[in-house]
Amino acid sequence: MSIPKSAQTPERILQRLDWKVIRRLDGLLQGDYRSLFYGYGVDFADLREYQPGDDIRYIDWNVTARMDAPYVRQYMEDREITAWFLLDLSPSVDFGVADHVKRSILIDFVTVIARLLTRHGNRVGAIFYASQIERMVPARGGRIQVLRLINDLLNQPQLPRSPFTDLSVMLEAGLNTIKQRSLVFVISDFISVPGWDRPMSLLNRRHEVLAIRLWDPRERELPDVGLVVMEDAETGEQVYVDTHDRRFRARFEEAARRREAQMIEALNCAGVDALSLSTEEDLVRAIVRFATLRQQRRKG
Question: What distance in Å separates the CA atoms of residue 210 and residue 56, rounded to the nearest whole number?
Answer without folding.
Answer: 18
